[in-house]
Every structure is written in structure tokens, then in C-alpha cells.
Description:
The chain is α/β, with parallel strands linked by helices. It is 44% helix and 15% strand. The chain has helices at 39-43, 45-55, 65-68, 83-93, 109-113, 116-122, 149-157, 169-176, 194-207, 221-234, 253-258, 263-279, 296-305, 321-339, 344-350, 354-357, 361-368, 377-400, 419-425, 437-443, and strands at 19-21, 24-26, 30-35, 58-61, 73-75, 78-81, 103-107, 128-132, 143-146, 161-163, 183-186, 211-216, 238-242, 286-290, 314-319.
Amino acid sequence: xxxxxxSDEALxxxxxxxxxxxxxxxxxxxxxxxxxxxxxxxxxxNGLAIGAALSxxxxxxGENVCRMDPKAKFSNGSIEYSxxxxxxxxxxxxxxxxxxxxxxxxxxxxxxxxDVEDYVINDLGVNIIERKWGQGAxxxxxxxxxxTLERAQTLKGRGYIVLPDPKxxxxxxxxxxxxxxxxxxxxxxxxxxxxxFVEDVEQLREKxxxxxxxxxGAYRPEDVAWTMRVASEAEVDYITFDGAGxxxxxxxxxxxxxxxxxxxxxxxxxxxxxxxxxxNGKYVPDISMAGGFIQETQxxxxxxxSNFDSDPFIKSVTMGRSPITAAFKGKQFAKKAKExxxxxxxxxxxxxxxxxxxxxxxxxxxxxxxxxxxIPPSAMAVYTYIHDRIGVxxxxxxxxTRKWNLELVNRDDLAALTERASEVTGIxxxxxKESDVYERLLLD
Length: 444
């Protein structure tokens, strides 16, 4: 399906793995993020942003960036300038083709109080605003660790919850004598209401947001159903559901291990909601699935599971950990190559320079010419991971199903290997697939 029945044409490299989510074109069915105010995001931003732009996918700038920016300027309780936010957006746009992917700015309670959406829409020309209700890694607000008393006091003064209280004399004394080594900055949890959210989405559009989206975590089935209802009523452009198993490092370990709904279970729940809405003529927003996605096989299964007839509900997956890992490793190995300290087995297998050990370097050099030198190794690593590992992998898998377009893959292309998987997803086990075919084909 999706190509002429010709052996010279039906090659995996001709498979179309592009997607469209909420009216945003994607070269691959991926959004990266959301990368907020954590240190790991800041340290690897060039790789993440440029890599996402080269790949033609959505880059989500996460929560708390403006208020956490040491150089931020405020006026009457609103953000007036953020060097960090401007740099994050500009870094992506340097290599953005203006057609595939885009920058999305995520806002939580703290950001809304600062009018971050007004700033990024009016001053920075951002097209996509994402409201955040939660994440799969934890059922509380975002957090980061603060190493100095001065920084902790600054953030406390900016309205954040900082623990222990950096302005408490006892805490100050404890920090000075070494018994307190660091502080935690926590974000408040939103209290969404249906009417207020619908009005909020309308106001964001009036302010100039071209796309309005929603990000939420993996809570009870009641919450999943209510969220889908509200997202439908507000007609958000797309919604991201984040299953347990994800997160980029700043979550309490017991909460990551024991709370929220695992991604497959969550997807099964929200697909029930999507079908009910669709069957009753209600608006169904496009969906991005998040929660521990790393491999192209997982991406394909998620999208296929959501296609009951002609068009998948899930248009992309949102990935956090794996692009960061690619950026970090790309930077690390480039540094070792420059210092002549590459492991001998690595050098023997992959080469001794960036141009040798990144398979995408030749095509990027041809496409970007003199600007190739402006692409850092960390970005090349992210692009190689997204474009060559995931992209080519998806093409091969889809060719294996004999479908040359991503939107053609559906539930019939899947089989469950365990009874539990079959029970949760509604996908039959292998021995149950096409059980009527034998006599029909052999005897008719």
C-alpha cells in the first residue's frame, strides 16, 4: 500500500515517514522535550535544538525557563526579558527550514503568573504554546536542585517554593557549617477547571498563538477521560500524554518507580476515550505519546495501535531522555577525538574524527555547505539518532509491513505475545490472528 507494485519502486528508502500533528508538518513523527530549566537541558541545548531543527521535528522548551534565568528582567510581575529563552528559540531557528517542525514553549502555573506566553508570542514570535498539567515521571510539579545559598534566596524572592527555606536563619547557619549542601526548587501544581481552560485556550488564540496544545501526565482513568473531554471541548491542536517510565532525571526515585500509569496502559485508556469521542461526533485532538520511547519499533507500535480504521489518533511520540543522551555522547566523543583519547576499539570501528564516526556528516556537509561548520557534534549526534537510526529504522519496518506511508500502519499489523498485552490493548495474540485463513485459502 502507498506505492506502485513494482520491485524497482518498492524499496524501503521510498517509505514516507513524515507526519502532521495539529497542523504542524513533521519530517519524522517526533517531538523532543520538554526540556525546561534543568541543568542537563542547558548544558546540552545546542545539540538538542539544532539537532531537532535539522531533523524537522518539534522542539518543546519546557517549564520555568524565564523565572529561573539569572539575567531575566521583570516589570510589574511579568517577564520582560529572558536571555535564556531568547537563546533557546534562536538556536533552533538558525537551522529551521520554516516548514517542518517548530518551537513550542511550555508553560506551567509559575510561567502563567509571569505572562510568559505574552512575552514569547509578542516579542519572540513563538507559534505554539503548550499548557502543562503534569508529567509521567512524577505526580508533583517540576523540581531542580540548587547548589548555592545565594541562588536559592534569589529564586525564593522570585516566588518559587524552595526547600529548605534559604531565608531561615537556622538553614543559613546549616548551609555555612556544611550540614545543608543544597536546596530544592519546586513548582506549584495546577488546578484546572473545564470552563477556565476552554476560556484560556480562546484567550491564547486571541493573543496570537497559532497552535495551542496540552501536556499532561499518567493519572487515574477518570483523569484521562476528563482531560480528553476538556481538550476536545477546547479544541486544542494536539495533546501530549506522558506515561510512567519517562523523565529526564529530576524526579523522586520512588515516585518514578511506583507512581503513574505505564505508557502502554495509558495509551489503551486514552484510545478508548478517543474512540468514544469520535463515534459520537466529537472533536478529537491529535495525540503525541510520551513515556520512555527510545526505539523506532516502539514508535511504530504506538502509532499502529491508535489506527482503528483509516487514520491514527497518535501522530507522534515525544522523546526526552534519548535525544539528551545522543547530544551528550556526541559532545563527549568529539572532545575525546580532539584530545586524541578515543578508545582504541571505538577508533578502529568508527574512525578518529567527527566526520568519520557520524554517518550523517557527508549528507549534512552537502546540504549546508559553509554552514556545516556551525553544526556542533552534539547536534550531529541528535540528527543522526533521529534521522538515521529512527527514520531509516521506521522505513525498514514499514516496508516490512508492505506499507509505504506511516499513516497506513494500523492495528492489524500488530500481534500480542502475551495474554496480558492482548487483554490491555485488545490486540489478538499471534495464534489468534487470521485463524480463519487456512481453510479459506487452501480449500476455496
